[in-house]
Amino acid sequence: MFNKILIANRGEIARRIICTCRKLNIQTVAIYSEADAQSLYVKEADEAYLVGKPPVAQSYLNIEKIIEIAKESHAEAIHPGYGLLSENATFAQSCLDAGLTFIGPSPEVIASMGSKLEARKKMKEAGIPIIEGMDIALENTEAACQAAEKIGYPIMLKASAGGGGIGMQRIDNSDQLVKAYEGNKKRAESFFGDGTMYIEKLIEDPHHVEIQIIADSYGNVVPLFERECSIQRRNQKVVEEAPSPFISEATRAKMQEAAVRAAKYIGYTNAGTIEFLVDSKQNFYFLEVNTRLQVEHPVTEEILGLDLVAEQIKIAAGESLSFQREDIERKGHAIEVRIYAEDPKTFFPSPGKITGLQLPQGLGIRHECAIEAGTEVTPFYDPMIAKLIAWGKDRDEACKRLLDALRNYKVEGIKTNIPMLIETVSHEQFLKGNPTTSFVENYYLPKIQEIKR
Predict the structure, then answer these.
(1) 183 shares a domain with 68
(2) Could you count the other beta carbons within 10 Å of the beta carbon of residue 135?
(3) Which of 65, 80, 354, 388 could bond 86 through an S-S bridge, CB–CB 3.0 to 4.6 Å?
(4) What is the distance between the alpha carbons of residues 425 and 162, in angstroms, rounded to a whole number?
(5) Whose CA is closest to 171, among 196, 152, 192?
(6) Worst-scoring range by mean pLDDT, 43-47, 163-167, 312-316?
(7) Rounded to an integer, what distance in angstroms lies between the CA atom of residue 259 and that of residue 120?
(8) Residues 79 and 158 placed together within one structural domain of the fold
(9) What is the pLDDT of residue 279?
(10) Residue 292 appears among annotated catalytic residues
(11) CATH number for the domain including 192?
(12) Domain-embedded: residue 123
């Protein structure tokens, strides 16, 4: 087992990893930008090093500096968390080249799955259902229009690299495609350094369901059930839960088998997620592979009694899985909401100082956050400041506990999306367990427009 791990991340996920490392008697090394010098995770780590100025390109994306700090601190491994460099194959390879263990899959797998076009090809080869669409990159706007006519509108225009909905847009006709193509291409180039674009057929009002898998270096792959992540805004997840209230047991079994087959085909190791879109008839189609720990991993931990970060570390240290598929028992239901520093009416970021904070307590309530009264929320990073997770013996109890907790969650000094979350988890459509990816557009945004009028 490792003696010391550097955490190449910040905020609540850095605190989450520190917590597990303490349980495993592993020392932790934090890195921080000038803007994060007073953050909770910096105070809680055993060691902390300044990595650079606030902009991520000068700090949390500075591979050379992060490797330098790891060597200076005598860390043996690096945990990338999620976001930032977590799915950067160059970073993973740089860790290995420096004699450090990268806690995640191999650089080759990260690179392969980092291209959505390459991932589509691999999944097709593995016999996994994929959405009708292109398997080659678009050359220009004219090629995009020709491909769209062949597939048939509506379609999804997508960036092959990156994630988070960047470069992705629903397109209903050729005029809209002509207007959208160059803008999305440039945005993808700006965010990911890769403006490769492609097209898929749009699946109307799908459910976004992902299978969590864990795999060791000895060929063992175990599916850890699924998470429903359908409530999104701007293609970013907002509410996640486990298990999915929508899919049947038969569909669940088929999706788990598909995820295991996919993971084995690409030689996956460590924790990862195979994501699918599921239509109204419970047909499912491959979406992408997330080659890292997910933001929503706590809901899986809550229903299975596992520590996924601990499993990640053990696998990276060369251990085999300590459990088999038949050992996994699902108990109850868990729901997670992402709390953002943003105006709930416009979704614009709301930086500033948190002048007061009250975290709700209660049975089945879990917090993942890196804020306290006095924390300065800066404009440099993702506006997600916390996650709230509620567990219950069934979905109804989890919903009730979550709603009660949200109503007692107080953040003063800045605006947050808590009002939106309360509206969402108290909505009849959500309580019925049938929210699709168009939930926010169909139910929340119209209400906001009515209030504005």
Answers:
(1) no
(2) 11
(3) 80
(4) 29
(5) 152
(6) 163-167
(7) 14
(8) no
(9) 95
(10) yes
(11) 3.30.1490.20
(12) no
Per residue in 399-449, pLDDT tens? 999 999 999 999 999 999 999 999 999 999 999 998 899 898 888 887 766
Environment class of 333 (CB within 10 Å of its CB; exposed 0-12, middle 13-18, buried 19+) = buried
Peptide bond into 435 cis (omega under 30): no
Cα-atom radius of gyration of the chain, to the nearest Å? 21
Distance of alpha carbon 356 from the chain centroid: 28
- Asked if 153 and 289 sit in the same domain, the reply is no
- Which residue is catalytic, options 10, 15, 292, 338? 292
| pLDDT at residue number 449 | 63
- Tell how many helices (H) and how many strands (E) occur in the chain: 16, 20
Boundary residue ending a domain (53, 83, 103): 103
Q: Cα separation of 127 and 145, whole Å?
A: 29
CATH code for position 27: 3.40.50.20
Residues 6+ apart with CB under 8 A from 142: none
Domain count, the chain: 3
CATH of the domain at 218: 3.30.470.20
CB count in 10 Å sphere of residue 133:
19
Q: Is 417 helix (H, G, I), strand (E, B) or coil?
A: coil
Please indicate, yes or no, whether residues 192 and 212 belong to a single structural domain of this protein: no
CA quadruple 91, 93, 98, 99: dihedral positive or negative? positive
Q: What pLDDT, on a 0 to 100 scale, did the predictor assign at position 192?
A: 83
Residues 165 and 93 in one domain: no
Enclosing domain of residue 194: 132-201
Which residues lie closer than 8 Å to 256 by C-beta, 6 or more apart?
211, 223, 225, 226
229 and 171 housed in the same domain: no
pLDDT at 233 (0 to 100)? 86
Chosen domain end from 185, 201, 217: 201
Supply φ then ψ for residue 31, to 5 degrees. Answer: -115, 145
Q: Is residue 122 assigned to a domain? A: no
In the numeric block, which tokens belong to residue 283? 């047909």
Evaluate whether 106 touches 291 at the Cβ level (below 8 Å): no
Order of strands, sheet of 384-392, starting from the edge strand that comes earlier in the sequence: 284-290, 270-278, 207-215, 221-233, 236-242, 333-340, 384-392, 365-369
Question: Nearest to residue 51, comparing CAs of 97, 93, 9, 96?
Answer: 9
Q: Are 243 and 367 part of one and the same domain?
A: yes
Q: Verify that 251 and 153 share a domain, yes or no.
A: no
With respect to residue 431, please indicate whether it lies within any of the assigned structural domains: yes
Q: Take residue 57 and report the two structure tokens written for it.
A: 């390109």
Residue 73 has, within 13 A of its CA and on its CB side, a CA count of: 28
The distance of Cα 61 from the centroid of its chain, to the nearest Å, equals 18
The answer to whether residue 114 is domain-embedded is no
pLDDT band at 451 (very low <50, low <70, confident <90, very high): low
Q: Provide the phi-psi class of 374: left if phi over 0, else alpha when psi is between -120 and 50, else beta.
A: left
